[in-house]
Amino acid sequence: MKASLKACDVVIFGGGGDLAMRKLLPALYHLDMDGLLAPTTRIIGASRREVSTEEYQTKIRAALDEFVPSSIGDEKTWPRFKERLSYVSVDAQQESDFSRLNDHKVGQEDRDVVFYLATSPDLFGSICSSLASHGLNADRMRVVLEKPLGRDLASSRAINDEVMKNFNEQQAFRIDHYLGKETVQNLLAIRFGNTLFEPLWDSAHIDNVQITVSETVGVEGRWGYYDNAGAMRDMVQNHLIQLLCLVAMEPPGRMDADSVRDEKIKVLKALRPIAGANAYNKTVRGQYAKGMIKGKDVKGYFDEEGSNPDSRTETFVALRADIDNWRWAGVPFYLRTGKRLGQRYSEIVIQYKAVPHSIFSDESNRQLQRNQLIIRLQPEEKISLTVMNKVPGASEGMNLQPVDLNLSLTEAFNDKRSPEAYERLLLDVMRNDATLFMRYDEVEAAWKWVDGIMSAWNQTSERPKEYASGSWGPAASMALPIKDGRNWHDY
User: Fold this and answer.
1) Which residues, including other chains, have CB under 8 Å from residue 422's CB and lie 6 or more apart?
2) What letter does residue 391 receive in the DSSP assignment?
3) Tens digit of each residue's pLDDT (9 = 90 or more) over 255-292
4) Which domain holds residue 446?
5) What is the tens place of the pLDDT at every residue in 197-256?
6) What is the CATH number of the domain that holds 286?
7) Would you say 84 is a known binding-site residue?
8) Rounded distance between C-alpha atoms, residue 42 and residue 50, angstroms
9) 302-361 pLDDT, tens digit each
10) Where do the H-state alpha helices sit in 271-361?
């Protein structure tokens, strides 16, 4: 990443909240540490609380000590970063408060401005309206919209429409932090920067694609919030569908925002609807029960504080998606995500078809495995390709064994710190590069597909299937690919 030299004001609404302290401010600190912020770029926290700039700086210093170990003892970056920091008390529901941003000279002297809305989506419309009423919506000013962007198509459309009354599409950056991960961007590099993979990236060569985002944590004291969202809204509608789009999209004409997003929307429009009785053949939903993770007993979903035993909110979803176009006809995409699962990881598995004819002995044929390309997003970022190789030795016959060809980003670039997703995305907003952000029609198309599934679930009295914490979800989810003669990668 090359330095962004243009001065910018970064205003964070919800500037004292968890997201700001854990992710946004540490990301900005790292950008400063790497020399990627212009000398006069300012960072302004904005929230309802009445605190001084000095108190705000002290709170950020404590957050950096906790979430950025490299900041401890860093006597070079912190003094510079501290000078960038200031605070303005703004109640997002009081339009008159926004005059304080003018008093703070936000956006003056033709500076670009990034308004990061790290607040409830219910406030997005009123914040944008108040900004506009105080002249803070010029073309050089941009808004970043955190997820979740609504609960369904109707509410998402209402939020977007409110934002669009005061900011145009080119000014709206709808963020999904998964798209800022190095390995997600490397997926594009692997496909479109090499002659090896793209010719084999279709139904003639690929048997199935699996996308898993697995968490070991539960709702962690946020039962009320999570129960209004669930795994489908919280994870599938944005993270998993965005990963699916990057795997399945056609090569864009250019590597720019609209070219990439034009190809992604084609994938979304080609997704086969899952509705009615078909939802019970193609989807599985579950709720975690008591169990054990890493040797420790953990609570079930209904043992969490504030829980309601009548809830039918899913904490796990597995589904089969089909893309009705020439490239992917007949190739199932298996998507899976859940809380309190056996291991924390996120990965994309490209499962290739078997060789059409094996020339090897019966023993070698029993060992013969299909090629797999595995793109691991977390906890470590790496890419591996499984190929068959002869076992070294002079024994009679040809003994084969699967071998992984690994690209570890940590090992390959051991002199480079792998940036957090928010670092890349915040820098892209400051540069006005929307390639890794979602466009209005993308969000709508994703919600339309998800709404069909959730509508089918709501038309029945069937509850989500229970699964033990520490397992891999309900037994029915294991059977989902088995019905097609396949298995999940980890089974």
Assistant:
1) 23, 24, 26, 27, 177, 180
2) P
3) 888 999 999 999 999 999 998 888 889 999 999 999 99
4) 179-419+439-483
5) 889 999 999 999 999 999 999 988 888 888 988 999 999 998 999 999 999 999 999 988
6) 3.30.360.10
7) no
8) 20
9) 988 888 988 999 999 999 999 999 999 999 999 999 999 999 999 999 999 988 877 776
10) 279-282
The answer to whether 357 is annotated as binding is: no
DSSP label at 329?
A: T
As a whole number of angstroms, the distance between CA 94 and CA 105 comes to 19
Contact 315, 305 (CB under 8 A): no
CA distance 7 to 9: 7
412 shares its domain with 302: yes
* C-alpha neighbours within 13 Å on the C-beta side of residue 277: 0
Q: Mind telling me the catalytic residues?
A: 239
Same domain? For 97 and 184 the reply is: no
Domains in the chain, number: 2
For 441, the 3-state DSSP assignment is: helix
Chain mean position to CA 369: 31
Pairing mode, strands 206-214 and 345-352? antiparallel
Q: Is the preceding omega at residue 251 within 30 degrees of 0, hence cis? A: no
In a domain, 243, yes or no: yes
Residues in the chain: 491
183 and 163: one domain?
A: no
Q: Are 266 and 250 in contact (CB under 8 A)?
A: yes
4, amino acid identity = S
Q: Is the pLDDT of residue 446 over 70?
A: yes
**Do 205 and 170 fall into the same domain?**
no
Asked if residue 207 belongs to a domain, the reply is yes
Q: Does 339 count as an annotated binding residue?
A: yes
Residues 403 and 360 in one domain: yes
* 215 labelled binding-site residue: yes
